[in-house]
Amino acid sequence: MSRTTTDLAPEDRELTRLAAAFSKAAADLVPGDAPPAVAFESPRNAAFGDFASNVALQLAKRARRPPQQLATEIVSKIFVDDPSLHDVVSEATALGGFINVRLAPAYWQRVVARILSEGDAYGRGAPTGERVSLEFGSANPTGPLVVVQGRTLSLGDSIAHAMRFCGVTVETEWIINDAGSQVDTLGRSLYARYRQIADPAFPFPDDGYPGDYLIPIARELRDAHGARFDDAPESEWLRLFATFGRDRLVAGQRETAERFRVTYDRWQSEKELHESGAVARGVERLRELGHTYESDGAVWMRTTAFGDDKDRVLVRQDGRPTYYAPDVAYHYEKLQRNDRAMLILGPDHHGYVTRLGTIAAAFERPGAISVLIAQLMTTIRDGEVVSLSKRHGDVLTLDDVIDEVGVDAARFFFVMMNADSPMTFDLSLAKEQTNDNPVFYVQYGHARIASIVARAPAELVARAARGEALDRLDAPAEIALARRLSEFPAVVRAVADTYAPSRLARYAQSVAADFTQFYMASRVLTDDADLSTARLALALAAKHVLATSLSLLGVTAPEKMERLEADD
RNA sequence: GCGGUCGUAGCUCAAUUGGAUAGAGCAACAGGCUACGAACUUGUAGGUUGGGGGUUCGAGUCCCUCCGACCGCACCA
């Protein structure tokens, strides 16, 4: 039931041979400019075999003949051309224009052997030399991380892992949005909390950040400075309070991220970009390239030249740069360090996508910046939508979620759905039905294998790890599992190429399901030493693929599962 | 108004980027523990892929057009 297109690894001699045979037969039957390229795909329906080729369908138009007829002729021709193909192909049939192929068990046995011998290298790509900047998660330093950011963190971190696994050099970045007015607002909010310690009636700013999380920070300031700022003018305390608050909150965000198993290569303060002169340099570079002009006393960027619907201001009349200026500058730097840059943004940054595109184009690197929009998330508890507004005190933080459902469940859940589909996160469901969470099913499969391995004699495990007696694998459930494991490299590559870690989450579920089928059908530890060795080898290969898949998703692969109390 | 994302089983989501009879998990119904972990498993039922047109051997997927949901469109960030 697989659907993953299988790329032909160079070592897949058999498949390469088969593809060549198809191609030659097709070229002989329908003379044309070039022999058609033959790709194999895995049919949705397992009854159609292991691989299918649509070469006859593609040829039908040019040949002006029914595809089914062509398919039939190709099938009979390849075995006439090369009778030795019978060793590779156990069955080849033409159906509805497709050519369905079932491979001999030996092919799948070799897959298991390869996984065991390659170990951690299985599915891993050689270094591509490509360097990519990946920015995700970046939040305003004005409060703790909330649920939605959990989704972005899960997506970004898993994508980074997958890309690195595929040989790409990835630099993950978190931008601290500390250059805008919200940091001043933070400073004033913090000041109000500071005053309220001595005077509970002290008014809180209307546009302030009202959560309780500022209170302990205010207390720190009170402890350090006493009443010194109680009657001081704003000019004396604003900078101190804003900076202190920012530092504390960023540290807290970072702590939460790390608790969520996400670490960054770079924490970039936007304020620092201004102070270091990077912003000025970026704007200057843009001027040199001729993409700026002055009007009404402001400096504009001619973004309309690159498809924007109106030009954008870089430097205001009063000489202060807009938010856009550091973005221009920072992405200029990113593109100097990397071949391309990728960002994962929330849906509220939609209007931003084209502007990032114009930045890439302006610096003569069109297409080098791409954006993935993670759609909105609705969080539900007890059938009611949980307010996610920071304007209210009752925010649901990422820490809350971790406390409630755990890192493993949260990370797996956040990544199960495609980023571009809005997702509903039912908190009470996650809480009450923890046992039904797919992540436990996958982890359970891994723990089961670990349990079998622990029970097996050491000698048997050693033989299995060496891939001995694999020719004893031939039962349908065994072949199906081996076949599933063979898809892993293509799945990881797809995740890295299409930024869709959801595929990996679903793949892990499939592996767990196929393993369970195998487990039900074939007892591993039997009286037959060779048979046990072969089946244990398959189990070890599955364990390895499960562990790798989970680790790429930032989820643990436990050797044992703690038994939870049963619900009733 | 302009632009973007989306609409698939009762619910949450898939569908190898144009392939075959649209699939999983929950929930529902009917079965299965004297074997390596039943946190499991076998089966049944569930659909006009929001509506309509088009492109072709073939459309959930691409084009047009309606309907609906969400989100963007500042010398705010």
Helix fraction by DSSP (H/I, runs of at least 4): 40-55%
Q: What top-tier CATH class of the largest domain fits best? A: Alpha Beta
How many structural units, i.e. domains?
Answer: 4
CATH superfamily of the largest domain: HUPs
**Largest sheet descriptor:** 5 strands, parallel
Q: Proportion of β residues?
A: 5-15%
- Average of per-residue pLDDT values: 88
Radius of gyration (Å): 29 Å
Q: Could you characterize what this model shows?
A:
The radius of gyration is 29 Å and the shape is globular. The chain has helices spanning 13-29, 55-63, 67-81, 105-118, 147-165, 181-198, 214-225, 234-259, 270-275, 278-288, 324-337, 353-362, 398-416, 427-432, 438-455, 458-465, 476-486, 488-498, 502-521, 529-552; strands at 40-41, 51-53, 89-95, 98-103, 131-136, 169-176, 266-269, 292-295, 298-301, 312-315, 340-345, 369-373, 377-381, 384-385, 423-426. A five-stranded parallel beta sheet has the order 7-6-5-11-12, with helices on both faces. α4 (105-118) crosses α20 (529-552), α15 packs across α19 and α16 (458-465) crosses α20 (529-552). It is built from 20 helices and 15 strands. The two termini are 34 Å apart. It folds into four domains: 13-103, Arginyl tRNA synthetase N-terminal domain (Gyrase A, domain 2), CATH 3.30.1360.70; 131-179 and 262-373, 3-Layer(aba) Sandwich (Rossmann fold), CATH 3.40.50; 181-259, no CATH class; 436-552, Isoleucyl-tRNA Synthetase, Domain 1 (Orthogonal Bundle), CATH 1.10.730. The chain is α/β, with parallel strands linked by helices. The structure holds one RNA strand of 77 nucleotides.
